[in-house]
Amino acid sequence: MTKMVLNAVGRAIPTHIKGMGDLTPFKGAFAHTPGPMNMTPRAAWHKPGQSKMTETIRQALENCGLADGMTLSFHHHFRNGDHLVNMVMDEVAAMGVRDITIAPSSLQSIHEKLIPHIRSGVITGIQTSGIRGEIARVLSTENLLKTPIIIRSHGGRPRAIESGDTKIDIAIIGAPAADAFGNVNGVEGPNACGSLGYAIADATCATHTVVVTDYLIPYPACPVSIPQTLVDYVVVAEGIGDPQGIVSGATRITRNPMELLIAEKANEAILASGLVQQDFSFQAGTGGSSLAVAHFLRQHMRENNIKGSFASGGINGYLVDMLEEGLFRTLMDVQCFDLKAIESIRKNPNHMEMSASYYANPHNKGCVAHQLDVMVLSATEIDVQFNVNVITGSNGIIMGASGGHCDTAAGSKLAIVVAPLFRGRLPIVVDQVTTVVTPGESIDVLVTEYGVAVNPARTDLKDRFRENGLKTVEIHELKERAEKVTGKPTKPVVTDEVIGLVEYRDGTIIDTIKKVVE
């Protein structure tokens, strides 16, 4: 029987898992001391005149020495328009290679085509930030992998790669544009996706890096997101991704009156905090409510002639409008969320591409997330200790992504969660969340349509709200009000089998995901 210990948020964590080794339980947002980083790319020798071009993906994989048991990484800048993961893993299966761990920055519903490769043993391990769709349901209800899925935040993933916790044998980079020597950017070509921020750590630290492009341009590519010095082979293949799949309803401002009310209350809380001053910094999630907060904030900035220093994260067209209007000096972009953002990063020098490590890695010499003043976050569930779940539904099934949630919550001066009190017949405020992704110590405020609750640890913030005439409620009151409408939520039926480990951004384990009995 594996020994279990309680971590800092009261979750029972195994101290050891076969095939993975010893695990370190979460101790607190800044309690874990980082080990040495391993940033140096693998040494290689390239002779003048030597070509990096290969005819096929198979040839590139063979040249990299693909073998059973290796780890292959991918990035998700095409989101649900990505074709490359399926394309490459089909080739890996055709080559007869098995026992592969894949390390994509995220998996979308389009990747359900991987399910047969999981069932057949081609894929036996997954390390990612999130999983959606049918592949998420199958992995949640069937214990198919040799080792549990590792869920990492957008800052935790590059930390793991750069520290050597994740050893990538072959990084597969989907390149909207590349030259024959491996210089890559995401802003040219018919399938431009914008920033390639998630792929940079992979290319830097992988043993081999393969660029797959459907738009080969003359040498040298300009601009360059990933340079030739990190690339071993270049392949031209049709249709690596569809940028239309980047766009989703989640990146548009809500028209729902209740969600607009929540956004207006959240904006009142942000203004009452006193943080909206000249040169303040801001990030909002991609949900419609979060973007509505940006809408109300934009109005205040216009009326009071306030200019922010930067907005960061995944960038959308609404933030582009604020940049072009002069409301922010700079956008710092790890991933473009729509076509307008892609066009902006192509033409506007004040719209900066950044790597995921630069964005949110807690163990480098200073990430952007730690420079944030205000962060607006979403939640699947939030409990009375202010712990937040964004990875599983209340039924225990994986349905979302850790993303930059815990990174920005830890780094910002004000981490504010916006959520309705209930969705359908399910309360959002609960006694205990199904899965902890972000610890309550990093969350400052919850805003619902029924009121604003402040984390008891932030007495300073509660006093400031009172001074500015903003009424607050206790989070227990919100929970009780929700349950009067929905009743007490039933907990998912799960087995003792651990099918997933949720890493905090520092590499410690903040929670486990158990196999769900449907």
Overall description:
It is a single chain. The chain has 518 residues and is an alpha/beta fold. The chain folds into 2 domains: 52-246 and 498-504 and 510-516, Glutaconate Coenzyme A-transferase (3-Layer(aba) Sandwich), CATH 3.40.1080.10; 249-487, Glutaconate Coenzyme A-transferase (3-Layer(aba) Sandwich), CATH 3.40.1080.10. Helices cover 25% and strands 23% of the residues. The protein has 14 helices and 29 strands. It has a 10-stranded mixed beta sheet. Strands 18-17-16-15-19-22-26-27 form an 8-stranded mixed beta sheet, sandwiched between helices. Helix 7 packs across helix 8. The mean pLDDT is 95.
Q: Portion of residues in helices?
A: 10-25%
How many domains is the backbone divided into?
Answer: 2
At the fourth CATH level, what is the homologous superfamily of the largest domain? Glutaconate Coenzyme A-transferase
Uncertain parts: none
What structural class do helix, strand and pairing data support? alpha/beta
Shape category: globular
Largest sheet report? 10 strands, mixed
Please report the distance between the alpha carbons of the first and last residues.
26 Å
CATH class of the largest domain: Alpha Beta
CATH fold descriptor of the largest domain? Glutaconate Coenzyme A-transferase
Strand content: 15-25%
The CATH level-2 architecture of the largest domain is identified as 3-Layer(aba) Sandwich
Question: Mean pLDDT, as a whole number?
Answer: 95
Discrete helix count: 14
Our Rg estimate from Cα atoms comes to 22 Å
GO cellular component, one term: ATP-independent citrate lyase complex
Main location: cytoplasm
Pfam families: CitF
GO molecular function: citrate (pro-3S)-lyase activity; citrate CoA-transferase activity
